[in-house]
Amino acid sequence: MYEMWAEHDPAVSPPAVVWHVVAKDDASSSLCGRFLEPSQRVMPSLDAPAPETPDRYCDPCLLTVRTAIAAAAR
Fold first, then answer.
1. Torsion of CA 59, 60, 62, 66, to 10 degrees
2. Does the pTM exceed 0.70?
3. Closest by alpha carbon to 3, among 40, 41, 39, 50?
4. CB distance 21 to 64 below 8 Å
5. What is the pLDDT along the chain (74 residues), one digit of tens a residue?
6. Of 11, 60, 53, 74, which is closest to residue 31 (Cα–Cα)?
């Protein structure tokens, strides 16, 4: 099983949140190979005001998921 992990992306300006896909049994790295630091994790709240910038999604992580789903469907 997999879950989404949000973190602040310091590589963009203005700062934004980027979502990665991680395995539930090993959340130390994402499917794209990025090592994730628990202190950088963002826990979104449903009660929080809308962010000023839209969230981003890690393209390499999503490509890995898409490829796995396509292979399973064959």
1. 120
2. yes
3. 41
4. yes
5. 788 999 887 777 777 889 999 988 887 889 998 888 888 888 877 766 666 667 889 999 999 999 988 998 87
6. 60
